[in-house]
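INFO batch 0412 | record 1 of 1 | parsing
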Amino acid sequence: MNLTFETFLPLLPVGILGATTVVVMLAIAFLRHHWWNATITVVGLNLALASVIALVWQGTAPTAITPLLVVDNFAYFYMALILVAALACSTLTHAFIDSYKNNREEMYLLLLIATAGALVLVCSRHMASFFIGLELMSVPVYGMVAYTHHRSRSLESGIKYMVLSATASAFMLFGMALIYAQTGTLAFSGVSEQLGGGAPIGHLATFGVGMIVIAICFKLSLAPFHLWTPDVYQGSPAPVGAFLATIGKVSVFAVLVRFLVETPFEFTLPLREVFSVIAVLSILLGNLLALMQTNLKRLLGYSSIAHLGYLLVALASGGGTALETVHVYLLTYVLTSLGAFGVVTLMSQGKDDEDADSLHHYRGLFWRRPYLTAVMTVMMLSLAGIPLTAGFIGKFYVMLTGVNTGNWWLLGVVILGSAIGLYYYLRVMVTLYMAASGMPKHDAANDWGQRTGGIIVLGVAGLVLLLGMYPQPAIEVIRMAKLLILPH
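INFO prediction complete | emitting tokens
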């Protein structure tokens, strides 16, 4: 293919992130200054987001950049979502780690590299770029999880996540090797050509896809590959938990959707039955185990398992609204998770031995920090799927997909899981407004309103409410994010 500047122009957001990473690395080498490094990071992320908007605005056609990557409206939508989440995470990181006593600047370097890997993932159309993007995103996260290494729990979480993630990567590599042995190609469309046409599908390709699905289920915290999630969420710094719950999930789910769309229907049909079982296990286990949690980050970890189960119901059901449901649900889930983890971040400080993540830290929060309480209340209502919040729109789309395809038993599990989830979300809300005798009415030591992070969580709460009351503009944007299959 003829490689020109116009060919690589759609990858401008990735290039900007790469350049920002180099600038931050040089800035750290010349002079350690927390504010400057955080500012450079935010500026780079804003420029990358602006480039995505500019490329969409000028109507750039879907472009295949070598056989490895494709940039279309689908990729642009998820690039924008990832960059918005990265901006929120970097701003919250500044508020969290400003009091940290050790080196602080490397956190932004790791965050930029991981975000670049996520952008590569959503553009992947080849097993090689899929694996490269996944590892480029995952490896920096090991360091981010264990960054507050003076905390034994944080160090433990980093090692646990590294070992288990490496195991999942080994499963994925072996699965890719089996598919290559069967088809002789690693391109998604090439696999589709080799396995299409009604030819019998060999055992190697079947086992290969099965091993890749296992690895993806680990990355998405789907049952029964979910056991690492609550421990890692609890041990990692709060803004890193936000990164794991948003960017880590969105990028992997996006490439899974692209693979399923480009692979022949007769090959993916058995996967729908597997996804149905995994979805049911994730919804039930996630919600039931969250009932017993007194740690807010662990509760959000189990909640994420359940929500990814709801999302998997849409893929298992199929139908004309399945892809739109995935886009809508991921958008609402990302915003809600950012708000919930944002409140935990602003309640915590990097210098402390642990984050303010136990429920007793939030008892009577309304009487001390009413704005944070309002944000957390909106997030809990959204996670529960209460009307007038973004979470309700996401749940509505999942149920609509189930009704359109007649998957009543999956729909029943979604309703049951939502009913169970309502209990522990409301329990968190009640805790926020419980006042004890002698409780101070204002927490002057934590004037969070002066922090940029406070503006971020307020803005996220406003978006959650806006999407819940007037979702049509967002839905119109999502309908433009069509996934086009380009020729091999």
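INFO post-check: The CA atoms of residues 117 and 135 lie 7 Å apart.
INFO record closed
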